[in-house]
């Protein structure tokens, strides 16, 4: 269903720790002006764990408003509580979002049958399309291949997977076992090209907050099977992908990059804290090496 570049948006905060609506609009305009397919507010990159319920729903509504029909809004509404995920999903639907992103429940570590029932209950409660999100590094478990195939068969509105397990073989298996209309997107910028070479159809990207045109061009080239062009873009921007991964926990590096670009102030909410000065210097150097600043 979903093909292209979908930006996992940062949530900017003001100096007094409120959602910075002006900076958020500026970021969304920057995305669509530079060719992204759609946006994904309040996922991990959007610091969803530190938003109140009211803020979470407000940011989703702002994203739908500011997108203004320029592309799909896939709202992060996942939770390790099924009831909470359903509540947030209904709010996203009411705000006009086309789809929701449902992360694999974290901390309570349900069985695969529990995962099936969790995602099915959410899908049954909404008309929105549903993108699953498997990220075992944060959730402690993954959404199994067979569970994904069961969900795709049982729920017509479960249409895609954001795959952030770091395994090309997982993408092979998803493509082989899920319906043809069910699409897999990379959840890691540095693996986008590798995943697309075996059948993924795009990326939910952190880096596109900063380089939306470049990520869009990479994905478009790969979708057209112009792997020479896609590889050239990947190689040029790999130092930035690497810096985002190694310098600190997401979204600290990308919010710092936006600050260095003058897009926002880079403010974070505890327990996330600013990068050490030496690491910020490394990030500044990586941004400079690829011509972003």
Produce the secondary structure layout.
Elements: E1 4-8, H1 21-33, E2 38-40, H2 53-67, E3 74-76, H3 82-94, E4 99-103, H4 112-124, E5 129-134, H5 136-139, H6 145-154, E6 158-163, H7 168-177, E7 183-186, H8 192-197, E8 202-205, H9 212-223, H10 227-246, H11 252-260, H12 277-289
Parallel strand pairs: 1-2, 1-8, 3-4, 4-5, 5-6, 6-7
Task: Please explain how this structure is put together.
The chain is of the alpha/beta class and 293 residues long. The chain has one domain (4-226): TIM Barrel (Alpha-Beta Barrel). 47% of the residues lie in helices and 12% in strands. The protein has twelve helices and eight strands. It has helices at residues 21-33, 53-67, 82-94, 112-124, 136-139, 145-154, 168-177, 192-197, 212-223, 227-246, 252-260, 277-289, and strands spanning 4-8, 38-40, 74-76, 99-103, 129-134, 158-163, 183-186, 202-205. The strands form two sheets. Strands 3-4-5-6-7 form a five-stranded parallel sheet. Strands 2-1-8 form a three-stranded parallel sheet. Strand 4 (99-103), helix 4 (112-124) and strand 5 form a beta-alpha-beta unit. Helix 1 crosses helix 2, helix 10 (227-246) runs antiparallel to helix 12 (277-289) and helix 11 (252-260) packs across helix 12. The mean pLDDT is 97.
């Amino acid at each position: 269903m979903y093909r292209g570049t979908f930006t996992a948006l940062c949530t900017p905060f003001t100096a007094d720790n409120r959602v910075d609506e002006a900076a958020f609009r500026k970021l969304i305009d920057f995305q669509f002006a530079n060719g992204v397919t759609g946006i994904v507010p309040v996922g991990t990159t959007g610091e969803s764990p530190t938003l109140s319920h009211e803020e979470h729903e407000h940011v989703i509504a702002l994203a739908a408003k500011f997108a203004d029909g320029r592309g799909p809004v896939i709202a992060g509404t996942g939770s390790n509580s099924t009831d909470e995920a359903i509540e947030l999903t209904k709010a996203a639907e009411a705000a006009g979002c086309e789809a929701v992103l449902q992360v694999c429940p974290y901390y309570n570590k349900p069985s695969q049958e529990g995962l099936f029932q969790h995602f099915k209950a959410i899908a049954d409660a909404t008309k929105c399309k549903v993108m699953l999100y498997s990220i075992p590094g944060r959730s402690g478990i993954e959404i199994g291949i067979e569970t994904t195939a069961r969900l795709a068969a049982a729920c017509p509105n479960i249409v895609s997977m954001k795959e952030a397990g770091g395994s090309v073989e997982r993408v092979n298996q998803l493509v082989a076992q899920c319906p043809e209309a069910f699409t897999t997107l990379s959840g890691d910028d540095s693996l986008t090209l590798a995943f697309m070479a075996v059948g993924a159809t795009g990326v939910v990207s952190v880096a596109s907050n900063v380089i939306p045109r470049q990520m869009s061009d990479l994905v478009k080239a790969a979708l057209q099977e112009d792997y020479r062009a896609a590889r050239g873009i990947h190689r040029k921007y790999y130092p930035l992908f690497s810096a985002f991964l190694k310098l600190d926990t997401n979204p600290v590096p990308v919010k710092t990059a936006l600050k260095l670009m003058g897009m926002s102030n880079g403010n974070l909410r505890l327990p996330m804290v600013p990068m050490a000065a030496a690491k910020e210097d490394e990030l500044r150097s990586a941004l400079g090496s690829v011509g972003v600043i």
